[in-house]
Amino acid sequence: MIIDTIQVVTHLLPDLVQASDEGGLAWLLAAGPAGAAATYWGFYRYYRNTDKSHDFEHDTIIDAQPVQGGEEKVDHISRTRDSDIDGDNSGKYRQRVRRVS
Amino acid sequence: MTQPPAPEPVPDPVPPQQPTFDGPPMSLEEELAASRAEPEPKPSIETINESLKDGLNRCPKCGSTDVQLRGSTGMLVCLFCRNEWQEERVEEQFGLGEGIDELEGTVIATGAKDIAADAVDLLTFKCEACGAEVVVNTAHAMNARCHWCRHTLNVNQQIPNGAVPDAVLPFKLTKEEAVEKIRDFASKRRLFAHRRFKREFVPENVLGVYLPYLVIDARAESEYWGMGEEETRRWTETTGSGDNKRTVTYYAADVFQVRRQVSFTVDDLTVEGSSERSDFDGKSTNNIINTILPFDTKNAVQWNSSYLVGFNSEKRDLNVDQLTPVLENQLLSIGRAQVQPSLGKFDRGVRWEQERVDVGGSRWVSMYLPVWLYSYRQESNGILHYIAVNARTGETMGSIPVSQPKLILAAFTVGTFLEGIAGWFLVAAS
What we know:
The structure holds 2 protein chains of 2 kinds. By secondary structure, chain A is of the alpha+beta class. Chain A has helices at residues 2-23, 31-48, 56-59; strands spanning 61-64, 68-80, 98-99. At the A-B interface, helix 1, helix 2, helix 3, strand 1 and strand 2 of A face strand 12, strand 13, helix 5, helix 6 and strand 16 of B. Strand 1 of chain A pairs antiparallel with strand 13 of chain B, so a sheet runs across the interface.
């Protein structure tokens, strides 16, 4: 339960930081809870190593051919406050998406 | 004036399909026999060590059966005459490093064949030296001493219960070296460790275990489809004035439909062959044992149970069919990592939405890999914590039970301190 709480706090942190753009220095008040959550989570991971696993994507002998493919412009976003695409999973190699055959 | 309707187009006459002549028709009995016949066997690699048999395996020099692994050299040593020798490396003997880019279908070595449902773990040997009957429980050990004449009996034939793999990678790190690594690992994590764990920590209780793995070579092609965004403009807008002044950053971006495809081969991808060890549900710390991969599997040698004398072993209980989805998942992940460098243009990121993998060919070999394992069951929550040492590379990983009150107190202290600084800063700024 404690870990869930910390994850919620960590999740909310970017919103609080973003609020700083609009609300002066009020976001500094989040430093205490954020620091506490980071301390707990950092030590917990250092002791339990729950996030560790074999990095087979890089630690295996792989011989790959040149990457093929292409891209086609389909739309334009003229004004958004999001700094990145929704659901960016390009670095989450193990997150599975819909399989097609 | 109305024109007469155009005549319906007449389709070209299609010649009637002629049945292909494939020999004289079979009788009903022959048809039934053919339908009941076993499916075509899959291609396989014979890895049985013909020079060994079940029972007594003697030193080639003096004939003694007191044979075991000498960790410092990785060779078998006769405890009677000190003769040292080793089995051949399977990499060269069975050509496991070659032809990966030409693999077709699923090639399974004999030691990785399906486990027979009726296979028993208990084997009874008649000691060739004295005639006594000795029982070996192959679920945990592959050797036994005859209780009458003290000869060592070995299991070398590939019984279909998953206990005898194709190859074994001998222990290299000694127990003393493993104890030192475990002690180092734990001593760096003393401050917030559970008090009872610290009291009961005895690294000398570490066990040498051969764990079952399937080592896979594969040829695959993977393809991905998704959306990518490239930033075209970034600007800030300021509204209000004085205390109500606000600055907001806005972005403009082009949106692309992205496709990437890559063909690749993998050499010695290693997956757990034990269902208990491959369960990463969070209730156990199996991820710890997974983390100490990879092993130098190129140095694995042909099976000889003398390598297991003095060590525990855990038999394989997963078949190739059960592990095929795991292989496909890992190939998809590897493919994603391979295409990642080609996405640099999309500085706002890429969202993959669909993926496909086509495994052109795979080759499966079962191996016992050496691990020094220290385990500790935490009474309060039932979690089994491991500290594991890769007995080839020395890589060490572990899970140390934490003292929650201590950790919460530390987090609270840091939080209070930071909040104090923030409060002071706000007061000073106002």
